[in-house]
Design a protein that fits this description.
The chain is an alpha/beta fold and 231 residues long. The protein is built from 8 helices and 10 strands. It has a single domain, classed as Alpha-Beta Barrel (TIM Barrel). Helix content is 32%, strand content 21%.
Length: 231
């Protein structure tokens, strides 16, 4: 039985254009200092929600929910993820996955099984700065493989970057854009300090909405669509 670590009954923002329940999985293999989900990252003091409770919830909300968004933490670290998604899909619900792209093997299994309708993958930094930004050693070949899989196999998708002034410059965003040039959708997420993983990041800053919009305008030639979102 698959065990999850949190659920938001209704979300209007986690799956573009859809109404979903958002499912949280604990554990993450990154240590991004600005992350606001430290309990999930470290899998500490989290509720335990089994699959049967989720499926019962979905049946009760049939006709009101379009599907679920699975996020974390990093959901692809959980080997039973395909089983859970298969049971959700069998009931006719859409599934969106949020991922950091470190487990392309799991992504390929999910795509091959027709289990995903939308994928949002975080691209944390340019390749050469990845380990510096996420505070662990990263094999960027895995990140590249996930990018390629998503662009080739996802029914719908976006890449996204949380933009922290102390970690992400305009030059960094351009480097990311050149890396994933031609992708369908890229979302810039505006950072606001809220219980960050590294308490020192309470002193970090986001860019203004005007600055974010200017970045988006600069990046439009690289993508089908560029979005600016508050976090």
């Amino acid at each position: 039985m698959v065990v999850m670590n949190g659920m938001q009954n209704t979300s209007f923002i986690d799956y573009p254009g859809k109404i979903v329940s958002t499912i949280f999985f604990g554990n993450c293999n990154f240590r991004c200092p600005y992350c606001h989900n430290s309990d999930l990252v470290f899998n500490q003091n989290l509720p335990q929600i089994d699959e049967s409770a989720l499926l019962e919830h979905l049946e009760k909300r049939r006709g009101k929910l379009d599907g679920i968004c699975i996020t974390g933490g990093e959901p692809t670290l959980h080997p039973d993820l395909p089983e859970l998604i298969r049971h959700v899909k069998e009931r006719g619900f859409l599934v969106k996955l949020d991922s950091n792209g470190t487990n392309p093997k799991m992504l390929e299994e999910l795509f091959s099984g027709g289990l995903l309708d939308y994928v949002a993958m975080d691209v944390k930094a340019p390749k050469e700065k990845y380990s510096e930004v996420v505070k662990v050693n990263v094999n960027t070949d895995l990140i590249q493989r996930s990018i390629d899989l998503i662009r080739e196999m996802a029914p719908d998708y976006e890449f996204r970057t949380t933009v922290v002034r102390e970690l992400t410059s305009e030059a960094d965003l351009i480097a990311i854009a050149e890396w994933i040039d031609g992708s369908k959708r890229y979302a810039l997420q505006q950072f606001k300090p809220h219980k960050p993983l590294d308490p020192k990041c309470m002193e970090c800053h986001g860019y203004s909405r005007e600055e974010m919009e200017a970045f988006a305008e600069r990046l439009k030639p690289y993508f089908g669509e560029v979005l600016v979102r508050a976090t």
